[in-house]
User: What shape does this take?
Amino acid sequence: MSNRALAVMTLRDELAQRANVQPISLRLKEAVENANWRIWERAQQHPELRGMGTTLTAAIISNGLAYIAQVGDSRAYLLRGENITQITKDQSLVQEWLDAGMLDVEEAQIHPYRNFLTQSLGVGPAVKVALTKFPIYRNDYLLLCSDGLSNKISPQEMRQALWKSNSIFETCRKFIDEANRRGGEDNITVILARFDGDAFPEGEKGREP
Assistant: This one.
């Protein structure tokens, strides 16, 4: 079983076992921390796996709120009206340089160290989980993806595709096919959700998350 598969399986089991834990952000944080521990513990038993981590971005939607947990550089994007927003911030060396003003966005996108992570699941016994919470409005899209997609498809291209989308499944397939066409050197994972129905309030145009 790969580290990625172990992370997903552990997260699923942990969330099911902690269904009554409140607040939800704590439930999500502890589930990710335990997934990290499981991967790290297996690496201690199998030395050939040491230092091999994986990234994780997960979401829980509850009572009109989105709770996002992240470790690494897999991303969450929110499309609301005409605006697409990157919700997560990469836990990477290049992102730290970008935040410090040592690089601009264009330089960061092509920097040879852009895939050098400052955190990933399973590399150490503990991990710092980045948590975000924001309201969901009717007709919002939430997109979770690995860097295999975000390194090949720009946010503006994602926005254009979602505007034209008649099928979430087909849009995901087009994203993956296009990322592969542009090189596809890395794993390409994408999860896309659209929120509709009276359970979600109507959002104001241009409202930020």
Q: What stands out?
A: The chain is about 35% helix and 20% strand. The mean pLDDT is 91. The chain has one domain: 3-194.
